[in-house]
Specification:
This protein is of the alpha/beta class and about 475 residues long. The protein folds into two domains: about 230 residues, no CATH class; about 130 residues. About 50% of the residues lie in helices and about 10% in strands. Strands 2-1-10-12-11 form a five-stranded mixed β-sheet. The chain has a four-stranded mixed β-sheet with strand order 5-6-3-9. Strands 4-7-8 form a three-stranded mixed β-sheet. Helix 14 crosses helix 17. The relative contact order is 0.08.
């Protein structure tokens, strides 16, 4: 065998052997695990509204490949701008029933791209308004914008009348709730700047109005449809990892979860026999590379554990509050998820459950993280990196916030915006006693505060941001 051939073949072998561990993704299961977690609490035959690739493809995988929760219909809002996708929603898929619509599918067909409404029209039941269009197509469907047909709606002021007995029977509301909620929900549809609704926006109005809350509907993120349907923010509540669209106004607080969400995050998916299957979080607590998408997904769930902890504490369940904070650290440790700006909320959460040592530890971590960020930003050339100012500004702002916490300043509680002092002098004593290295950590923070960089650069910069 020629020596040249042997030597040439050794190159890929060496590359593979030396780099395999750097590129091995066999333990990265975040996409699969998060998909299961998203659907695990969804009610039977429900609809989950998604928007992009990262939130849709894992759900499709878990259904199509692993056969998990095929009773749930995934409705991609972005794809519903295409006529062929909307037409599929009229069909049954696995155990998932067709979606309810008032418009026949041809009104979403090719050539029907634009939907305009009369802003001076009366308030009408959604189904009545759409049926008026169906019954009088010559009046409301016209080809007057080039080759596309324009569908004219008689109004932009709608209501959805609730069939309360049916909602009770379907488990959407309780008998007690039926006596306290209105008989209908009134709302206006906002016209976007472009001056008309597009196919996916029209589809959403049709679906929600025809469904009348009788089939459970979840949404990944309200912000994608709240411009056109601002009412969504008042009629949705976080349920598990999704937001549930409900037929009653929800607590106006910044954060609010259903009662069953904490049980879901603590114990996992409840099986038919009453046992639980614990939630899996993609091995993000292992010694693996956490890519930016997985990092973002993990940060969102870190916040969820913390917010749930605060809600449980307010409900008088301190044990569950402490458990949720412990699970957050177990599944999303700082080795893979540095304590950056997301940890600001955690400082208050640990303070609330009486764990001042961890609260102080987090503030020191935040300081260390953004001190390094500031050093990095200052090492960059402005001519090469246009985002240097933002990087330096963010680092300066969060360093300032860490200093305020360390100095026992009165700050706004991120859970309800009330003023409070998250760190106490007694907590500082406990922190110093917990570990001999903690004195040096606090001294590094204090030395920074007394230095000219903080006094002459950071404080004026942060003050200019206000």
């Amino acid at each position: 065998m020629p020596l040249a051939f042997v030597l040439s073949m050794s190159v890929p072998v060496i590359l593979g052997a030396e780099n395999w561990d750097d590129h091995d993704r066999s333990q990265k299961t975040a996409a699969r695990d998060f998909a299961k977690n998203y659907l695990g609490l969804a009610d039977k035959n429900s609809v989950v509204i998604t928007f992009g690739d990262n939130d849709t493809f894992p759900l499709w995988y878990i259904q199509e490949v692993e056969g998990w929760r095929t009773d749930v219909r995934i409705l991609n809002y972005t794809l519903s701008g295409m006529h062929w996708y909307v037409e599929q929603l009229y069909n049954k898929l696995y155990e998932s029933d067709p979606l309810p619509f008032t418009f026949p599918k041809e009104l979403y067909g090719l050539g029907h791209e634009l939907y305009v409404y009369n802003p001076d029209g009366p308030r009408m039941e959604v189904t009545d308004a759409l049926q008026t269009v169906v019954n009088n197509r010559k009046q409301f469907v016209r080809c007057d914008r080039g080759s596309d047909s324009v569908v004219y709606l008689p109004t932009n002021k709608f209501k959805i009348t609730l069939d309360k007995p049916k909602l009770i029977a379907n488990g959407i509301i309780t008998s007690a709730q039926a006596d306290t909620i209105p008989d209908y929900i009134a709302f206006d549809v906002n016209i976007p700047r472009r001056g008309y609704l597009m196919r996916n926006e029209m589809m959403m109005l049709d679906f929600l109005g025809t469904n009348r809350f009788e089939r459970p509907v979840y949404i990944m993120n309200n912000s994608y449809i709240s411009e056109v349907f601002p009412v969504i923010n008042s009629y949705s509540i976080d349920d598990g990892m999704l937001s549930s669209i409900v037929p009653y106004p929800v607590n106006g607080g910044t954060y609010h979860y259903t009662d069953r969400t904490a049980d879901y995050f603590i114990n996992g998916i409840r099986n038919d026999d009453g046992t639980y299957t614990p939630l899996q979080w993609g091995n993000l607590n292992k010694d693996i590379y956490v890519d930016p998408v997985s990092k973002n997904m993990g940060d969102v769930q870190r916040q969820t554990f913390v917010i749930l902890s605060d809600q449980m504490l307010r409900n008088g369940d301190t044990a569950s509050a402490v458990k949720l904070l412990a699970l957050r650290e177990q599944f999303f440790p700082k080795a893979n998820f540095p304590n950056d700006r997301f940890a600001m909320m955690m400082v208050f959460a640990y303070s609330h459950v009486g764990d001042q040592v961890t609260a102080y530890d987090l503030v020191c971590d935040i300081f260390d993280y953004y001190y390094q960020q500031l050093r990095y930003a200052k090492s960059l050339s402005q001519s090469k990196f246009i985002s240097v100012d933002k990087l330096q500004g963010d680092a300066s702002y969060f360093l300032y916030q860490a200093v305020q916490m360390r100095n026992h300043a009165m700050l706004r509680n991120p859970f309800d915006n009330r003023p409070e002092i998250p760190l106490t002098e007694e907590g500082e004593k406990a922190f110093l006693a917990a570990d001999a290295n903690n004195a040096q950590r606090l001294k590094a923070l204090d030395d920074f505060v007394s230095g000219s960089e903080y006094q002459n650069e950071i404080v004026p910069l942060v003050n200019s941001m206000r």
